[in-house]
Amino acid sequence: MTILRSPRLADGSARGIPDATVARLPVYLRALNALTEQGVSSCSSIELAENAGVNPAKLRKDLSYLGSYGTRGVGYDVEYLRYQIAREIGQTQDWDVVIVGIGNLGSALSSYQGFSTRGIRVAALVDADPQRVGTEISGLTVSSMDDLDAIVADRAISIGVIATPGTAAQEVADRLVAAGITSILNFAPALVQVPDGVDVRKVDLSIELQILAYHEQRKAGIEPKVSGI
Amino acid sequence: MTILRSPRLADGSARGIPDATVARLPVYLRALNALTEQGVSSCSSIELAENAGVNPAKLRKDLSYLGSYGTRGVGYDVEYLRYQIAREIGQTQDWDVVIVGIGNLGSALSSYQGFSTRGIRVAALVDADPQRVGTEISGLTVSSMDDLDAIVADRAISIGVIATPGTAAQEVADRLVAAGITSILNFAPALVQVPDGVDVRKVDLSIELQILAYHEQRKAGIEPKVSGI
DNA sequence: CTCTGTGAACATATTCACAGCC
DNA sequence: GGCTGTGAATATGTTCACAGAG
Q1: CA distances (Å), B17 to each of A100, A214, B52, B154, in order?
Q2: A52 vs B201: CB contact, 8 Å cut-off?
Q3: B81 is in an annotated binding site
Q4: Using an 8 Å Cβ cutoff, are A192 and A186 in contact?
Q5: CB distance from B153 to chain A under 8 Å?
Q6: What DSSP string describes chain B?
Q7: What residues of chain B lie within 8 A of the CB of A211, using their CB?
Q8: Order of strands across the sheet with B159-162?
Q9: Half-sphere exposure of B223 (CA within 13 A, CB side)
Q10: A209 vs B115: CB contact, 8 Å cut-off?
């Protein structure tokens, strides 16, 4: 939740892309990859927007924050645009992440197929439970929490994933920050406090379903009222 | 992404709570539960906001959409507010969900501890792979896709979770909708199209990390420039 | 003529600041 | 006096609609 702000474009190189746009750039990248696989080498904002599931105007506005990478009257060169977005979001390099908490969810994340093609490399697994330390999960050996500092330093890891129970989340976040991690993806159902300069994003599996349940309830509750339609 | 809209409060009973507020209500519920466990029976908007990780004004505005459940000069009764929010988001009942795709992620979701206490009950597991059908995961037997219609109908399930590879996602979504599912949580890295009236929410594990990577890149790239501070 | 890039209009969300009740 | 509930102000995000490049 502690996300850096810089939405105004100042001088030359510092861009300042809106958060909402940043969150969609990976979606566009995926859509462009799909088009490449289909052998499409050029596309309009309408086609790309369809593949990404957004409104074409929104897509064009989003891309306009990066620069003018299209051709008026023609559209976008798929490969060129793909490279430009990849460069913008740092996908020209791989990012190493360390996962803390190798329970069911942590194990699933460790072997998640979708990461490698998106510039994410699971570089290390850490767990507090001595029973799990030494275990091998999809080619990686689970390390002890005591080795966290060394792992983060040695492999120059800046992104950590918390996949522990909620009760351990804050403690783990503190350890990650102390080890030098500056970005955290938190799957634990708990709020974690971090110092300024550290970004946290939260994925809460229950909350997503609770939101759907809310809408379900409304559907069920409202339909009887709208008997005319 | 196809979320029903009704932000305007019309006559009496139809409320119309903003999406952003709906997404935070489960967070408040969790914070209230935490306070109850600590033996706190009353709290101010400031205390609750701290526990939920939001601004107190935002919290008060969010709660104002539900009604006036606080007492001026005093604060909120934890138990009473907890009940009111629970009722609003449909947490006074349990919601059955069916998970499709029992790979690593699907298995992890099946045994996720956080659901049961949040009104979510994993009622059925389904997989297209005959090898997996019949397997038992945390007390549930994996069923065949052929049985999907019967399962959804018999257990009156309205929420489905897609945990398949991206390539299967649209096919699975179609099957879920055909079976009568009206809300889908999609973990597959793919866009799914659904008819009007069906809600889809998407959780994309890669994208969350890619967004963090973007911010990491900025931190790394910008610091050398801001040498004065 | 086609399709991008973008100012302007609109919609939603957040935060401020204070009136009103306890 | 203290804290909620909320109008008003601000910030952010989305969509429209069209000027302008090719």
Answers
A1: 36, 11, 19, 32
A2: no
A3: no
A4: yes
A5: no
A6: -------S--STT-----HHHHHHHHHHHHHHHHHHHTT--EE-HHHHHHHHTS-HHHHHHHHHTT---EETTTEEEHHHHHHHHHHHTTTTS-EEEEEE--SHHHHHHHT-TTTGGGTEEEEEEEES-TTTTT-EETTEEEEEGGGHHHHHHHTT--EEEE-S-HHHHHHHHHHHHHHT--EEEE-SSS-----TT-EEEE--HHHHHHHHHHHHHHHHHHTTT----
A7: 22-23, 26, 201
A8: B136-137, B140-144, B120-127, B95-100, B159-162, B183-186, B199-202
A9: 6
A10: yes
Give pLDDT tens digits for B19-36. 999 999 999 999 999 999
**Hey, what amino acid is at A227?**
S
Nucleotide nearest to B72 (CA to C1'): D4
Helix, strand or coil for residue A16?
A: coil
Alpha-carbon distances of B35 from A123, A178, B21, B44, rounded to whole Å: 37, 28, 21, 12
Distances (CA, A) of B19 to A36, B11, B59, B139, B195: 35, 20, 14, 35, 20
Q: Rg of the Cα trace of chain B? A: 21
B104 is in an annotated binding site: yes
The 8-class DSSP code of residue A11 comes to S
Say if A108 is an interface residue toward chain B (CB within 8 Å).
yes
CA of B150 to C1' of D8 (A): 54
Mean pLDDT of A2-17: 47
Buried residues in A92-102 as b, exposed as e (16+ CB within 10 A): eeebbbbbbbb
Q: Which domains does chain A have, with CATH numbers?
A: 19-88 (1.10.10.10), 95-207 (3.40.50.720)
Please compute the mean of the pLDDT values over residues A136-145 and round it to a whole number: 97
In one-letter notation, the amino acid at residue A197 is G
Q: What is the pLDDT of residues A77-136, one digit of tens each?
A: 999 999 999 999 999 999 999 999 999 999 999 999 999 999 999 999 999 999 999 999
| Mean pLDDT, rounded, for A61-84 | 98
CA A111, A114, A115, A116 torsion-angle sign: positive
Cα-Cα end-to-end distance for chain B: 42
